[in-house]
Amino acid sequence: MRELLEKIAAEGEVVADGVLKVDRFLNHQVDPHLMKRIGEEFAAQFHRERPTKVLTLESSGISPALMAAYELGVPLVVARKRRPLTMTSEVYCAEVYSFTKKETNEIIVSRPLLDSSDRVLIIDDFLANGQAALGMVEVVRQAGADVVGIGIVIEKAFQDGGRLLRSQGFRVVSLARIASLSDGVIRFHEEVMS
Q: Coiled-coil ranges per the record?
């Protein structure tokens, strides 16, 4: 997605080896026009799979996932990292390790929100090692539902997450694929391939 690549190139910042900061448009301050375009692109990519729900993990995945759900005309389910007092029903849960934050979180979804009739599209902001996506896959499987695809805004293609998910048979669509963040330079996958 050209518009996203341009935004990453202009406003993304490599803050450490393997860490890309995009908080000016994706996960701290959000560019609503870009999120709308991202939602449209995910809807175009996945509408044939007929998802009945979009699932994301709080909090950075919410903006692109909401726009994708809106464009697809389906509800958005947000997996929580902490169980709020208002979540009184039984839950589906999975453990997810964050390499960025160096911590393990239990993600939870209230059982009434997913069931075996659902066709779930997973959307997330980043894909690095694949742990967040695999945690969401586990939650969907616990519900007896089907994962119809995984949409990623930015994939760190130099890490194993994309290969891991694709090797398990998931259709993964990444709108931007980063080949390298070495030496503080953002290199897109297409640049390396050509």
A: none
Was 142 annotated as part of a binding site?
A: no
Specify the 3-state DSSP secondary structure of 192.
Answer: helix
- Domains in the chain, CATH or no CATH each: 2-81+89-193 (3.40.50.2020)
131 annotated as ligand-binding: yes
Kindly give the confidence (pLDDT) of every residue in the chain, 194 residues in length, as a single tens digit, with 9 standing for 90 and above.
Answer: 999 999 999 999 999 878 999 999 998 999 999 999 999 999 999 999 999 999 999 988 999 999 999 999 999 999 998 777 677 779 999 999 887 778 898 999 999 999 999 999 999 999 999 999 999 999 999 999 999 999 999 999 999 999 999 999 999 999 999 999 999 999 998 743 32
